[in-house]
## 1
Amino acid sequence: MYVSFETIPTFVWVFIVTYAIYLIKKPRLSKNEPPLIPYKYPIIGHTIDFLFNPENFLAECRQKYGDPFNIYVFGQVNTIVGNEIAHEVYQSDTFSLSVATRDSFPLYRVLRSLDNPETMESLIKAIREGITAKLPLYTGRMQKQLMGYINKEIGDCPKPKLIDTAADNFASMIARPVADVLVGQEISKNEDVIKAFADFTKDFASILAIPPILSFIHPKVHTQVITLPLRFGFNPILKHMITLKKHLKPVLEKRLKEKKILGDKYEPPLDIIEYFVNDLENETKVITEGYMNKICDFIFITVVASIHTTSRQLSSALYDFAGRPELWDDLYEEQVRIDKESDGELTSQHVNKMVKLDSFVRESLRTFDAVAAIPQKCMDSYTFKNGMTIPKGRTVLTYLSDIHYNTTAYGPNPRSFLPHHGMENNIPASKTDKNYFIFGSGKHACPGRFFAVNEIKIGMHKLILKYHIKTPSGKVEKKVFHGPLAEPPITGLIFENR
């Protein structure tokens, strides 16, 4: 190969720049940190193994170096915490999920209320007081909304019908009861609002499609680049905001008017927007544009935290059911018995009696989720009980496979599907513990998990009663992995009338 004299300086500069980046980005650990796993490639570190072989890579690291350990991915050191250490992270106020996700999922660029640190506190309070505490009151409405979707989107299946699940993983199904609870029964009948709720997270995620290559320089560089479209006017989710405002504003104005006229005789509707407007911090006499922005931000933050994850979990549970014919009769018999007891109208007591289905859902959740996920940002230097210390600013990832597949809790074959484990051990699907982190744990546990589990159970109850459900292969379909993150299978499901 001929190399001209003029090309030599180019090679020299490339070498100098590459070496400078290597020196700048070379990880420097402080004293008493968890061990940094050795890597072959400067700058790249463990990125390739973490993206393309996360299960085997992290298992080998865990076996050789214990819990916790450090890996070097996309130019940043991340601490991986597993079965022995993770519970410490979730019991401490030193770690923040919201801060950790700002760079990788910069929703605050669109929902400005997220810039206020009190927003998440208000959201958690609203979910606990406005939804979880009143869950029995929502049960009837929930099943009505779910049946509306089932009858419309799946419908009558006298012959086997293949339903595509890849498009939204039943997001439209989950969006209906969520809309009912958030914005009320009147607005939740509007198909445009349902579509806005179902598509919001998916459309925002389209902005994040660029791989975080620029994070090798710095995470903020990547964030600045992926959010450029927003700053230049391309906002694929603005239409959803406009849709919600259009239908929500007249309802809010009507309620304020009725409240003023009726006074103490006013009967407040049961939904989160009523909870929001009755909260002293959010009281208003006039529905201004600023007030609409605030309440719509509040609603869509809840949508992001609920619909996408719950619909994925429902979809995965249906695949687990469809691919395991040995479980069909047992689960069907329980649903038939409860349907007869309830005369087709479920109450919270009937949902609580679905112990076999609850145990099945718990096991589906345990075996579904990512290899490693749930980033937490260390807000101050923190020392684990084993004496290891991590610095302020460090991102901590939960090694979910190490937690959900540990032999102490789940026996000698923890990767096998154990449909009766929750029932035999009296552990409901919504209960978090040190061996089950699907909803987080401790102070960082998801406040909406009770509602989410009820949605999944009621949805599966109605579907199992109405249809035979199978996979195209007749077997358990493989999940789709994007790096260490899991998605439900994309093969579709076959429905046939019982």
## 2
Amino acid sequence: MPRKATRKGLLRDFSPRVGYAYDLRMQYHCDLDDTDDPHPEDPRRTYWIHNLLERSDLLNLMHAVKIFPATDTQILRVHRNHYINSLEKTKVMERASLIDEQNKYDSVYLCSESYYCAKLSAGGLLSLCHEVVSGRLDSGFAIVRPPGHHACKSRAMGFCLLNNIAIAIEDILLNGLAERIMVVDWDIHHGNGIQDIFIRNPNVLYCSLHRYDGGDFYPASNEGNMDKVGKDAGRGFNINIPWVTSGMGDGDYLYAFNQLIIPVAKQFSPDFIIIASGFDAAICDPIGECDVSPECYATMTHMLNEINNGKIVLSLEGGYNLDAIANSALGCVKALLGIKWRAGFIPEQAIYNAYATLSAAEINGVSIGPQVYRDEWKADGGWDPKIEVPECFNAGPSVLGKEVVDEVVRIQKQYWKCL
């Protein structure tokens, strides 16, 4: 049974069994090239999320999953041996050699601890997924780094070394723990690595919502376009929703969910759902430049958690504003736990990036004290996003966002009767 809450005002009996994977050692993966200017894939990203969940007393309602590094056997089901050998050698390289090695890849940094951290990241997600697919937990959040959805079979790219989600999926399928797995990738970048690995697999449905910008947005390939629907037996099991510009917001994402993602999910009826949970589409993210709120992330999590008895795990991918990712993760975890609060309790979007990640935060000249939960906390099985996030839930799509989703629906109709 879940641990009981300690803070006055929280209900003491929560039915959802929600786990999390976290290991402080993942922060050892760091950029050696320029320590004065933190890399966007900042080692503090996982700590920031964990810290806010802890100070909000949510960790008291969750189960910590013990983490082990992914094994060579598990990793080599996805990645080529020569590539893993090259990562293995980085453990004993000097600084100059590490910098030379990282320059062989696209947007990657390396240190002597990087490969071990990548194995911990993949292993943390694996451990959490096993707990959920086995039924010991209902859902969970993997607070892991380095991220993984860009990592390909034979190369690192886009801050990613090992493809965490692909490694977890291959292990689950091989061990017969699930037959149909759905991946929803809401990172602002297309998860080219996941798509490539499962492009022919009809047992893995991959759905990605990402900035495409005519193929110019990272990873700058036409593989993220809407016409990439899968190959051979996997045809129809790859769905790309490629936004044509920055500025996509709650209305665009919820329109995509209502018109496409959720109907397809219900027809596919997955045994297990993994969310490639990058938060770089969040408001204030300097790279994604979009406007998705924490409330919207909570709503999307809730919608997916309603599918097929709700076996679901979120795995951290991107997200480069520390406060934005922490508050977005907070919303997602609340959705998993079934917690709701009174409308209006969430701070306005203009200041949300300044609230409560530290005991006293000063961000962009705004000082604000720690977040305090009082009688606004509620918890039951009937979590209602209309109560939780009325502005988000009622938001309409932009003209460009609607055009993209409608065109993807038109393409996918030949594969999905629900559309």
## 3
Amino acid sequence: MPGRHLETRSVFTAVWLAGAGLAGCGPATAQELANAPVGTEEQALTEGAPLTVHDASCLQLQDQNTWSSAASYMTSVGPALGLPAILQDLNRAGPMLTASTHPPATGYKGGFRWNDGDMGTPEWIPQALTAGVSGSANVAIVSWHYALTNPDKGVRISVADISDMSASAVNYRHLLLVRPTSAGNFTNVAEHGGGLAWYGNYLYMADTSDGIRVFDLTQIRAVDTSTACETKLGKNGSVWCAYGYKYVLPQVSAYVMPASITSPCRTKFSFLGKDTRGTVPGVLSGEYCNNGDTPCPYDGSTPGLGGRLYRWPVDAATNRLKAVSGVVKPERAYIMNEPNVQGVAPLMTATSTTSYWLSSTRYGGALFKVSTSASRTAYLSGSSQWPKMPEGMHATGSGTNLWTVTEGVAGVTSPASGGRVVFFVDQASVD
């Protein structure tokens, strides 16, 4: 995630509200109240300490409510194609990792790398990962941000069929994310693509500065792939272009922070995760913070540790965020006490929503198991326990596998030593 995402912001003086606890963050269990440290004025943070319960009562997201209009804008582009149709038209193959090509990872079970062109391209950088089921296929979706600026192609996703991880390769295809702007036209999604979460037909993506964008997997459209379209986006004469990509996935709405919400309440949406534990499912969001160009408002006297983690409730009937009068409030919030966090996944072997895995580029690459009741457990790349440059994660609901995508070390294409990979480990091995 380092790069364009790490926009420099003003350094805010961190003032912890005396007695800041659980107000506005949903009901707390007795265990949370007993175990969760509470912020006090100018409290120093400690790397690796338990999650600190945070008062997020000031924060909210508003539904832009463009669900119908955005979809209608795409009607003239062509028929809506669901994800099953794309899974029948995968055009790239990512070789399966082997005993000699996979990176070190505690509990490693399997994985794949991208094809040679995607392993080496400096234009597109892998960021987030989510997974789910489409028909009879198990599917992983990975986002990539565009590293160049002229033009800014925004974000693309890779749809990969991971149903048979004993095969020789994983088949996948890239799609370009777009935002409808008017009837029959669309533009790029100029974001970092740092987080994904998949519920039903909706793909949630982190919008770093403003909130969460939502894309509808039933609204995928095919566009023109002629040479003339390779440098164009949107309507071009009688056809539609997407920089040469065959398919576009349109945004249908977004949940945004009102402009009236300012720092320190205003947060960043650096990464996302999917949490199906408890009676209400949730989308997780968190802040990337470091001790350099990306400080956070709640860092206290220890820069880099004040990143916040939020749990946003999902309406299981609609797969949209659970809104009251168009407003969504976080159900839980924590200070992570960890720097350089790039991804999150719920600890599916735990029933309460108080424990998580955090993916971090701290120490060159790390997996942290964190909770409100205990100091972290760390799996480090320097100790051959985790790959370098890990990014987004997804924990399967069965509590079996933990999937991760890596950004890759710049200039390295060997998957065993820092090249870009998608892999999974046994959840119990890192529990």
## 4
Amino acid sequence: MLAGVLGCFAGRFGRVEPRRAATAFVTGLLSDLEVKTCWQLAEQAGHARPDAIQRLLYRAVWDADAVRDDLRQLITDRFGGPDAVLVVDETGDLKKGQHSVGVQRQYSGTAGRIENSQVGVFLGYAGASGHTLIDRRVYLPASWTDDRDRCQAAGVPDEIGFATKSQLAADMITAAIDAGVPAGWAAADEAYGNSAVFRAHLRGHGLGYVLAVSCSHLIPLDGGKTRVRADRVAAELPASAWQRRSAGAGSKGPRFYDWAWLDDVCTDADPDDGGRHSLLVRRNATTGELAFYRCWTPQPAALAQFVRVAGIRWTVETSFQAAKSQVGLDQHQVRRWDSWHRFTTLALAALAVLAICAADAAHHDPADTGLIKLTVNEVRRLINACIIRPISDLTHRLHWSG
């Protein structure tokens, strides 16, 4: 699978040197290195200097978006299906200094507070047999796009202007649909679900959606004549409105919640969209905590379908966790626009190796043996134990320690 993933985009390199460097780079990301910077990856690959690995990110001639396209095709060929879900979310990387592209003091979900950080918006793909990340965009705050000298110093193309995170997410979804990615649904958290423009964008593509919204989100009732807070709508629901259903398997078994579904509400959208609008409410059976979702489908759908998609949204969180803990997604030490996209794309390639291997292991597993299914963490451990042969020559190690 490692060879297959690397081979899917090998033709994007016009010279053998950057192609070999990319192979070493992705293999190094899969290795058991604690820190995965250019220096560590070069040492792992057996290079005498970090030049080849650094050149791959900074000066070598190759198109990271074209490599992304090849990866996306490989992943959707493996996991694709008409009921697959496109999931968008962002993640932040804590940074020092002011020169890394997109960095500023802003809220970071990683830290849970406002920190000096860099935010990337990602598109995940979840099919019946597996899930992983298939696209990425770096978020440029207005403090960057309003300062063209700063953008030029970081290599940001002149045509790149300010775009909100939901606009970046919409761009990735449009690119996926235009590329023929099979999907029937989209899912996202409330940062995207609260955006009427983002919801309209999904309807324009005919994608059904289950988008989280905030408790204070105003739900249009009676054809938009009345607007009521989502939590107020939930408070007035009778006990008979709730059904207990699983949102999918978790680490400890099925994730059961109570669900209430209000069909044919939220009708303030374009009346000619031809679809069905509804509100979905999830209640934690233990704590009573509520979550709210605005839903739309081009055709009538059952409650079970909305619950499934709501549960799948969490796959992007597990992909982030795996990408950071297993392949160093957040360990890049790059400042420029191209370098960020190149590092991130190669990290997605390494993540794809793990995700596809784990899915293949689950698919080929015989009848229930009572053993835990292979995870991406265990797949990476096996790759290091059975495939990657680290350089152990003492002279080489002392050279890098000098």
